[in-house]
Amino acid sequence: MKQKHFIDTHKGVTGLFILLLIYYFNQWQNINAWVYLALHGSYGIMWVLKSLIFPDKTWESKCSIFHGLYMWAGLTLYWVSPWLITSGSVSSTPIFIGCSISLFSIGVFFHFASDMQKHAHLKLNPGSLIQDGLMSKCRNMNYFGELLIYVSFAMLSHHWIPFAILASFIVIIWLPNMYRKDRSLSRHEGYVEYRKRTSFLIPFIW
User: Fold this and answer.
1) Which of 5, 34, 139, 204 is most buried, judging by how many CB atoms fall within 10 Å of its CB?
2) Burial bucket for residue 143 (CB in 10 Å: 0-12, 13-18, 19+)
3) Whole-number Å distance between alpha carbons of 141 and 147
């Protein structure tokens, strides 16, 4: 099996899991729970569609059942936010919820649009360095978008644990992947200049 099979199934059932939590904790009137379901649930569906329409080659590699289940278990840490919201009846002000939705929407744009740009560019120009569009200011715009998405999820929980989990994913998985990508890109002509004029993860900041 491929890595994406485990990742896609986890993303795909996230909405159902959140709905189960709402049912189990009887949180039918909890606005945070429903907003979280709308955001994270739709993100899971979009991820699966992305995987079907313009897949990321990173997740196309084969893996063992053990490694796949290990990945599945790790991704389950992202379910801490909805558990905190539903088990503790967490609620937010309309302004706070609006900010979370806005952050999520912006993150979705950067994440999925940059992945689509990468997919289309490499299909038409295989083996070339992507230096325009969303990649013109940041070398990891897709990760930046994903960062905004998961921050919006963590915000709704009103708890530090989801932020700590996100930080651990960044340190253990995201950063090594991004550094590995930089090493791979370094073989292309023009990379040195491209690196100088682009940010690593957060546009114009880092």
Assistant:
1) 139
2) buried
3) 10
Task: For the chain, give the number of residues.
Answer: 206
**Which sign, positive or negative, has the C-alpha torsion 143, 148, 151, 153?**
negative
Question: H helices within the chain, ranges in order?
Answer: 3-24, 31-53, 65-75, 80-87, 94-124, 141-157, 160-169, 175-185, 191-196
Query: pLDDT digits over 20-45, tens only?
Result: 999 999 999 999 999 999 999 999 99
Which residues lie across from 199 on neighbouring strands?
138
**CA–CA dist 117, 120 (Å, integer):** 5
pLDDT in tens, 42-82: 999 999 999 999 988 888 888 899 988 999 999 999 999 99
Cα 25 to Cα 134: distance, rounded to the nearest angstrom = 42
CA distance 110 to 135: 10
